[in-house]
Q: What sequence folds into this?
């Protein structure tokens, strides 16, 4: 399937092992983003916690995922712009094309999250149109342009902002799994979109665990992109 990456799916499955997950997570736990990404990252998290509360929930996850897919689309758009300018530089063009490929796969992955979680939230909780639909779209609009211009002027800042956002998402899903493990294991999964995407969790616990794994992968991949920038410099 074009919308799923076999290598990333293998990595995702391996992270179900707590030891493997801890080693993978520890690799970039001590990374320190620069000031501007920290300010923007804390602002996004603060706004989210203010509107949706600090406690994870289906509706909070739906809002988070509407926003989480945005930076990958921004990077892809910015890369397209740069490819128009630097198509004669093969090395730079290759790097931009590889980033676009990862961004599209990550965007598809985050889209899967929001579609499936939206269906679960519809059953589990009652949504408010303004709070749970309009506000996330406004957040997403702000985040798209912030990520786009950060990437244009300093890609490192764009990746670091994503690192912070995905770190927060990982922590929220981890907490949700810990607090609701037994209940989630009793709830079976049935989703045509998830089946089309290529995953088949037996229950909500397995599904949310795979989403948690996706977020830590995206977090680490953001720093790996920064390392590639350093190697090229």
A:
């Amino acid at each position: 399937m074009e919308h799923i990456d076999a290598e990333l799916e293998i990595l995702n499955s391996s992270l179900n092992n707590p030891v493997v997950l801890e080693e993978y997570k520890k690799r970039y736990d001590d990374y320190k983003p620069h000031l501007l990404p920290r300010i923007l990252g804390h602002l996004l998290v603060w706004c989210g916690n203010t509107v949706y509360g600090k406690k994870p929930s289906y509706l909070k996850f739906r809002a988070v995922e509407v926003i989480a897919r945005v930076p990958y689309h921004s990077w892809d758009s910015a890369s397209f712009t740069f490819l128009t300018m630097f198509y004669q530089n093969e090395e730079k063009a290759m790097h931009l094309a590889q980033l676009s490929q990862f961004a599209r796969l990550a965007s598809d992955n985050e889209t899967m999250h929001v579609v499936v979680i939206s269906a679960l939230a519809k059953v589990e909780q009652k949504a408010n149109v303004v709070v749970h639909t309009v506000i996330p779209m406004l957040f997403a609009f702000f985040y798209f342009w912030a990520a786009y211009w950060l990437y244009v002027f300093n890609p490192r800042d764009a990746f670091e902002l994503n690192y912070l956002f995905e770190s927060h998402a990982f922590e929220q899903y981890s907490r949700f799994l810990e607090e609701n493990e037994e209940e989630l294991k009793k709830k079976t999964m049935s989703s045509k979109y998830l089946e089309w995407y290529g995953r088949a969790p037996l229950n909500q616990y397995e599904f949310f665990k795979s989403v948690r794994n996706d977020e830590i992968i995206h977090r680490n991949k953001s720093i790996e992109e920064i390392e590639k920038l350093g190697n090229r410099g």
